[in-house]
Amino acid sequence: MKMMFLSRADIEKVLDMKSTIEGVREVYRLKSLGRTAVWPLISYDFDDPHGVMDIKSGCVFGENVHGLKMLNSFPGNARRGLPVFTGVLMIFDSETGIPQGVMDASFITCMRTGAAGALGASLLARPESHRLFILGAGRQAMFQIAASLLLMPKIDAVRISDPLDAENARRFAAECRERLARDFGIDASAVAFETAEDTAAALAESDIAITVTPARSPVIKKEWVKPGLHLSCVGADMPGKEEIEPEIFTGARIFTDDTPQCLRCGELELAAAKGAVSEKDIAGELGDVISGKVKGRTSPEEITIFDATGIAMLDLVTGKKALELAKEKGLGQYVEL
Q1: Could you give the residue numbers annotated as active site?
Q2: pTM (predicted TM-score)
Q3: Please, is 167 exposed, middle or buried when counting C-beta atoms within 10 Å of its C-beta (0-12, 13-18, 19+)?
């Protein structure tokens, strides 16, 4: 029995953001129709050296795949000249249980996460939205921007904030146009990229906010959020993480990628624990909007929130697509089990 192995380099050669967005959209739709399964998240915090590990798993019946992804984030690796963010994705055939592929998970995670955060914004923000605010200038931020520009061509201004390192945000903003062209084939010559030196002021001028930090205490305050703003909260993907004040949820129209998981380890976790929100306040999952079960935004003044914790089926479908394209192009290596 043979199985394909794909390196990050192989995956980068075959995956593009447009097809990733299409796959993510379809997974959310299938989830709304009850044709997927999300299995319990496993996570562990290492104290010495500091690091975190999580395992997400699930099944997409519509695509006939199941599997799991293990991710590791060890910040101290940067001082050792080693990758900070690593992971492995394993994909199985759901009819036979036979392994289909093992591959690097870091690039797939970045691609599908960017697609998810931007998809939430495109479905829930006001149609005329054209100003995007990105909280966080790390690895994931560029993927969020790329997907947002593809899904929302009206965007003409992007402001980036790094709460811990303003200089990093300045470098990031200066490189955006070149990196989007090189890595995603996106012409962003008509888009203004700026550093958000004042988060409150930047939010006041923005239509959409996407948060992608590892924060464990709120960075965005209630009084900074104006009527009509959409927030895609992407950074809180494990217990204890929190990027926005719990009070922002009060009165907002709230959507999730998977409600039980979001209440357990998403942006909603601590907000619910503090009594600012409960499960009955959640309008639905994003897939319910795509499938037409639930209406998204209901008024221009409404604050909308998409809590995206990340679900394994997004990785599985994106990984399956990578396997198919790699086979077509003769990439990857087959190993005998």
Answers
A1: 69
A2: 0.95
A3: exposed
